[in-house]
UniProtKB/TrEMBL annotation:
<dbReference type="GO" id="GO:0006310">
    <property type="term" value="P:DNA recombination"/>
</dbReference>
<dbReference type="InterPro" id="IPR006164">
    <property type="entry name" value="DNA_bd_Ku70/Ku80"/>
</dbReference>
<feature type="region of interest" description="Disordered">
    <location>
        <begin position="253"/>
        <end position="299"/>
    </location>
</feature>
<keyword id="KW-0234">DNA repair</keyword>
<keyword id="KW-0233">DNA recombination</keyword>
<feature type="domain" description="Ku">
    <location>
        <begin position="56"/>
        <end position="185"/>
    </location>
</feature>
<keyword id="KW-0238">DNA-binding</keyword>
<comment type="similarity">
    <text>Belongs to the prokaryotic Ku family.</text>
</comment>
<dbReference type="InterPro" id="IPR009187">
    <property type="entry name" value="Prok_Ku"/>
</dbReference>
<feature type="compositionally biased region" description="Low complexity">
    <location>
        <begin position="280"/>
        <end position="290"/>
    </location>
</feature>
<dbReference type="InterPro" id="IPR016194">
    <property type="entry name" value="SPOC-like_C_dom_sf"/>
</dbReference>
<dbReference type="Pfam" id="PF02735">
    <property type="entry name" value="Ku"/>
</dbReference>
<protein>
    <recommendedName>
        <fullName>Non-homologous end joining protein Ku</fullName>
    </recommendedName>
</protein>
<dbReference type="GO" id="GO:0006303">
    <property type="term" value="P:double-strand break repair via nonhomologous end joining"/>
</dbReference>
<comment type="function">
    <text>With LigD forms a non-homologous end joining (NHEJ) DNA repair enzyme, which repairs dsDNA breaks with reduced fidelity. Binds linear dsDNA with 5'- and 3'- overhangs but not closed circular dsDNA nor ssDNA. Recruits and stimulates the ligase activity of LigD.</text>
</comment>
<keyword id="KW-0227">DNA damage</keyword>
<comment type="subunit">
    <text>Homodimer. Interacts with LigD.</text>
</comment>
């Protein structure tokens, strides 16, 4: 087996202690199925080409340059050597700024994971850092220049080594308020909530990445195989969202209670802040009215 190639080499420093380390890619998409773009008429591959937006003429690679738009159609040209000079100089050191509780960072900030391992000398210092973090149950925040950008990195103990996750900057993480602004103010109570808890309890388990397969990759592979063999795949029915009126029955069936199961408690109140006391008044009035009506004898 070929030894993995390091993506970055440098030092990790905490206090006055430092040791050489290397970063290795922890997640890769290289094994995914890749498509080529073809000309439908000829079946030949097509190639991407940069053209001038005004003249329509092709622009060769050595004639292409970076530009920053300052006004509509007005650009500041940035030469490659100017961009390189503007990038902060890297001292190739992951300098730890602080140790924080492991669960303090929202994982929405996580960008890309890398394995962090000792490089040649300094393994004693590396193990000291790893075991110290494990014992204190903390992660480390460090900064360095990675791939021509200043990056903030979260470092955690991971097996025999460390795992370093680059973090998104605050301006890159969008607020959740916009995503959830149309969420209604609903309140779920009673049997519906009990059944949901029951179903969740039945489905409790532990995370095992090996049990999760890439269904998209498998489906595409099967489609390619079917095309080669000249057969078609059956069409799948699209899932249908449960209607509010059918939700209780769907929950009962999911819990294995069946269609004729008697609810343990009254059906749920789904409302916008209505209390149980207010909902109980019409029911109490109806019961009183029913008790005052004489029963008919069977003929």
């Amino acid at each position: 087996m070929v030894a993995p190639r390091a993506n970055w080499k440098g030092f990790i420093k905490f206090g006055e202690v430092s040791c050489p380390v290397a970063l290795y890619t922890a997640a890769s998409s290289s094994e995914r199925i890749a498509f080529n773009t073809l000309n439908r008429k000829t079946g030949n591959r097509v190639r991407r080409e940069f053209v001038d937006s005004e003249t329509g003429d092709p622009v060769e690679r050595d004639e292409q340059v970076k530009g920053y738009e300052v006004e509509n159609g007005q650009y500041i040209v940035l030469e490659p050597d100017e961009v390189a000079a503007a990038v902060p100089e890297s001292d190739k050191t992951l300098k730890i700024d602080a140790f924080i509780p492991c669960n303090e960072i929202d994982d929405v900030y996580f960008d890309k994971p890398y394995y962090l391992a000792p490089d040649r000398m300094g393994k004693d210092a590396f193990v000291l850092l790893r075991d110290g973090m494990k014992k204190a149950k903390v992660a480390a925040i460090a900064r360095t220049v990675l791939f021509r950008r200043m990056r903030t990195v979260l470092i955690r103990a991971h097996g025999k080594g460390l795992i370093a996750s680059t973090l998104n900057f605050d301006y890159e993480v969008r607020s959740s308020e916009k995503a959830f602004e149309e969420m209604p103010d609903l309140k779920i109570e009673g049997e519906m909530l009990d059944l949901a808890e029951h179903i969740i309890g039945k489905k409790k388990g532990s995370f095992d990445a090996s049990t999760f397969d890439d269904r998209y990759e498998a489906a595409v592979a099967e489609l390619v195989k079917a095309k080669i063999e000249g057969r078609s795949l059956p069409k799948k029915k699209a899932p249908v969202a449960s209607k509010p009126s059918d939700l209780l029955q769907a929950l009962r069936e999911s819990a294995g209670l069946g269609a004729k199961a008697e609810p343990k408690r009254a059906a749920a109140n789904v409302n916008k802040g209505t209390s149980r006391q207010k909902a109980a008044k019409p029911a109490a009035a109806a019961k009183s009215k029913a008790g005052s009506t004489p029963a008919r004898r069977a003929s």
